[in-house]
Amino acid sequence: MPEPIRILVVDDHPVVRAGIEGMLAQQSDFILVGEAENGEQAVQRALELQPSVVLMDLRMPVMDGLQAMLLIRQHLPQTQVLILTTYDRDRDVLAAINAGAIGYLLKDSPREDLYQAVRAAAQGKSILHPAVAVRILNHMRNAPSFDLLSDREVEILRLVSEGHSNKEIGSVLFISAATVKTHLIHIFTKLNVTDRAAAVRVAIERGILHLNDHSDR
Asked: Topology of domain 5-141, per CATH?
C-alpha cells in the first residue's frame, strides 16, 4: 500500500483552512500534518514536518506565498507546492509557476479536482485550473505588453546588470535574498523573459534601464 500523502495547509483565514482540512480528511490516502497562517510560519512548519505537498495561498501577511514557496523549494526540493487561491490574474499565475509551483487551483474548484491535484502533485505532476491554463496559453500566444517596473524593481535590475548576486543585492537594499528573488520573478513576468541577462537586455532596449545613469530609473 502506498505511503499516505502528507499535507501542510497554508492560508491566513481560519475558516478557509478548516474547510480545506475538512475536505482533505475525507480521503484515506491524505494525512494533514499541520497548518500555517502566513508564509513565514509555512516555511517553519514545512522544515519541521517535511510534507509531501503544501497547499499554499498567495496573499498572506508577514510573508506572501511566493516568498514562502521559494524558501520551501530551496530547502525541501522534494516537497511540492500547490497554489490554492482566489487570484487568477496573469501576473499572479505566471509568477507562481515561475517560482516553482507544481500546480495552480482556484478556491472555487470542485473538491474532486482538489483531490486529483494533490495526488498529482505528490507524484511530481502538474494540474492547472482550466481558467488558469487558458490564461497561460493566451499569454504565450499573445505576448502581452510589459507593465512598468516599480522603482524598487528597477533598482534591483540595475544591481543585477552590475553583476551582483541576490545576496549582495539584499545587503545593499537591506532586504533578504529571498525577497530579491521574488522581485526578480515579478520582473521576469512583467518583461516576459526567463532569466537575468534577458531582463537586463529587454529593460535597456525599452528604455527602462539606463546603465550609465545610476540615479535614473
From this structure: Rossmann fold (3.40.50)
